[in-house]
């Protein structure tokens, strides 16, 4: 009997967790009784957990030391990896198309390919949404991918070194547009990186660095509790971060950001983290019903509306929580729970069993301000009296456990233990900031 094929497009947090889980449950290269062939497709060769990108951007994490090879992970977990970028979909034929793979010189490494499926899961994440603001695409950095984070790090490091190693005494002004989790965590991480650079001999780094957060809403962290937002605002102010709330951005230029009230902020570097949308290529795919932000509308079992063989999870999926009648946000917690759900639901689908309904369980939110502070609310904030505010060491440990839980879902207990040991040894023998 021909094995069914489950194709998962996107190797982010949810996609890789799902591929690894299904590979262990249903797949395997050498198992004669494997129920399905699991195929993961991604445009990159390696995986890096997206919530770590602000650390890569600041240089406090070396992305090459924390990356995970899709080929190696597939071999150990029983799925196959296809290197490529999806650019087409033919639902009637249950087929996706992958664009040609080219190198930096434009040479074709792999031609366009077709990939058939019995079940398809779209887990393609999200990208920044500039809402048409003039100058954003030309002059702003985005921190949506490892490549973007590394580019910002190179520019930040060059600007920092120029001011420390030459007579230039102008401030290094970084304007972060958007006061959500990415914006506030990046601001704190940059301050930490400048402090470490000072210790390593780049004199004046901390003194010359000015970081400003611009947020259109009346407060930071609009999706989090008021108590967490207030504590975060105070902690950032205490370490010298300039916070402008209630201010929208009208334009961005090469060395400045103009606010809606006409205020012009100097900006050696500007970062856009004010909004998200699903990848624009989804709009060109037939058969998908898209909602706000270009996200794929999905039903109770995370099936794309009108497409029983296509599922979506994570940032690109628009799931309306029946308990609140509101869409779930683009959060790692959501992607993790949806991957766990689909691991069981897809197996049921293959076996002809009824599909269960996805139910999101809110466990709380956490914010880490680098070495300075951490805050969080644990429990379901939708229920009065069901949350607990934490800060300090407890919040820092809880935040670190988020990453470890992702590693556990992907690599299992032994793999996570090995990674933790490697991390401890690396911290003892490597610089705290990546200076190249």
Key phrases:
single chain, FAD/NAD(P)-binding domain, five-stranded parallel beta sheet, four-stranded parallel beta sheet
Per-chain topology:
Elements: E1 4-9, H1 13-25, E2 36-42, E3 46-47, H2 53-58, H3 63-66, E4 68-69, H4 70-77, E5 80-83, E6 86-90, E7 95-98, E8 101-102, E9 108-110, E10 113-116, E11 119-122, E12 127-128, H5 136-139, H6 146-165, E13 172-177, H7 181-199, H8 205-208, E14 209-215, H9 226-238, E15 242-245, E16 249-253, E17 256-259, E18 264-266, E19 269-272, E20 276-277, E21 296-297, E22 310-312, E23 317-318, E24 320-321, E25 326-327, H10 332-350, E26 364-369, E27 373-379, E28 387-391, H11 392-429
Parallel strand pairs: 1-2, 1-11, 2-5, 11-22, 13-14, 13-19, 14-15, 21-23
Antiparallel strand pairs: 3-4, 6-7, 7-10, 8-9, 12-20, 16-17, 17-18, 24-25, 26-27, 27-28
Helix pairs in contact: 1-4, 1-10, 1-11
Characterize the structure shown:
It is built from eleven helices and 28 strands. It is an alpha/beta fold and 436 residues long. It folds into two domains: 4-126 and 278-350, FAD/NAD(P)-binding domain, CATH 3.50.50.60; 128-276 and 366-429, FAD/NAD(P)-binding domain. Strands 5-2-1-11-22 form a five-stranded parallel sheet. Strand 1 (4-9), helix 1 and strand 2 form a beta-alpha-beta unit. Helix 1 packs across helix 11. The longest helix is centred in the last third of the chain and has 38 residues, at 392-429. The protein starts with a strand and ends in a 7-residue tail after the last helix. The mean pLDDT is 90.
Radius of gyration (CA) equals: 22 Å
Query: Helix tally?
Result: 11
CATH architecture of the largest domain: 3-Layer(bba) Sandwich
Sheet with the most strands? 5 strands, parallel
């Amino acid at each position: 009997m021909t094995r069914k094929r489950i194709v998962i497009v996107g190797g982010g947090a949810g996609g890789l967790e799902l591929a690894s889980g299904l590979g262990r449950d249903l797949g395997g290269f050498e198992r004669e009784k494997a129920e399905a062939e699991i195929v993961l497709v991604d445009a990159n060769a390696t995986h890096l957990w997206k919530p770590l990108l602000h650390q890569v951007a600041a240089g406090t994490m070396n992305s090459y030391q924390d990356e995970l090879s899709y080929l190696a992970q597939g071999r150990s977990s029983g799925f196959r990896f296809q290197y490529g970028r999806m650019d087409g979909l033919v639902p009637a034929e249950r087929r996706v198309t992958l664009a040609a793979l080219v190198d930096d010189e434009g040479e074709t490494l792999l031609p366009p390919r077709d990939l058939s499926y019995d079940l398809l899961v779209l887990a393609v994440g999200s990208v920044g949404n500039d809402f048409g603001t003039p100058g954003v695409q030309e002059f702003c950095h985005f921190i949506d991918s490892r490549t973007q984070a590394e580019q910002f790090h190179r520019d930040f490091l060059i600007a920092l070194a120029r001011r420390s190693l030459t007579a230039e005494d102008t401030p290094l002004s970084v304007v972060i547009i958007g006061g959500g989790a990415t914006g506030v965590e990046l601001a704190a991480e940059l301050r930490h990186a400048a402090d470490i650079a000072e210790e390593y001999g780049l004199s004046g780094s901390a003194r010359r660095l000015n970081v400003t957060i611009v947020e259109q809403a009346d407060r930071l962290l609009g999706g989090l509790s008021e108590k967490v937002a207030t504590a975060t605002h105070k902690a950032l102010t205490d370490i010298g971060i300039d916070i402008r709330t209630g201010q929208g951005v009208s334009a961005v230029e090469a060395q400045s950001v103009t606010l809606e009230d006409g205020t012009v902020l100097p900006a050696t570097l500007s970062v856009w983290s004010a909004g998200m949308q699903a990848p624009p290529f989804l709009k060109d795919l037939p058969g998908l019903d898209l909602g706000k932000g270009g996200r794929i509308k999905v039903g109770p079992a995370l099936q794309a509306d009108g497409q029983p063989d296509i599922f979506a999870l994570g940032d690109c999926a628009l799931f309306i929580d029946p308990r609140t009648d509101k869409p779930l946000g683009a959060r790692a917690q959501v992607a993790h729970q949806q991957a766990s759900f689909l691991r069981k639901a897809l197996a049921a689908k293959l076996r002809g069993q009824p599909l269960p309904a996805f139910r999101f369980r809110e466990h709380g939110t956490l914010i880490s301000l680098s070495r300075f502070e951490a805050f969080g609310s644990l429990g379901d904030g939708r229920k009065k009296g069901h949350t607990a505010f934490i800060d300090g060491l407890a919040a820092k440990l809880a935040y670190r456990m988020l990453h470890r839980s992702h590693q556990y879902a992907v690599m299992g207990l032994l793999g996570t233990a090995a990674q933790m040991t490697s991390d401890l040894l690396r911290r003892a023998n490597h610089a705290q900031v990546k200076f190249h």
